[in-house]
Design goal:
With about 170 residues, the chain is an alpha+beta fold. About 50% of the residues lie in helices and about 20% in strands.
Amino acid sequence: PHPSLCCPPGGPQLGPKRPGRARSLLGSQRKRRKSATPDPKEKQTCDIRLRVRAEYCQHDSALHGNVFSNKQDPLERQFERFNQANTILKSRDLGSIICDIKFSELTYLDAFWRDYINGSLLEALKGVFITDSLKQAVGHEAIKLLVNVDEEDYELGRQKLLRNLMLHTAP
């Protein structure tokens, strides 16, 4: 389950997605970083991927009355209605933002994770994304903000920073 916050009408609207490009760049950068062998004397960092997504809380009002078909064949009718609903839902996609955050200190990583788990991060991001202009763009509809950080990224990053700590504190 992802932490989410259902905002009052006029919640955040994120810019349109640019499919593929950001993901492929980030994916290739991430692969390069993982394959490089680190210098044991050099202080290591870890990357944590933060995903923030805004979604409408309800889609019923947009779909109701806008999805119909007069096709006689039940299968054709169902297919046409599905395509119409799909088009409407895609047009309501508010997008998402993906951030790779670099940590070099274990205490900061742990504080970030704690804030993610207890919902403080979500609340802070709500303050960043929900602006007056975004409220105006979305209008009267309620929006929810979804925030996700992979626990596996956190655990791997924590292990890496713990090794740093042990290497640099050992006599």
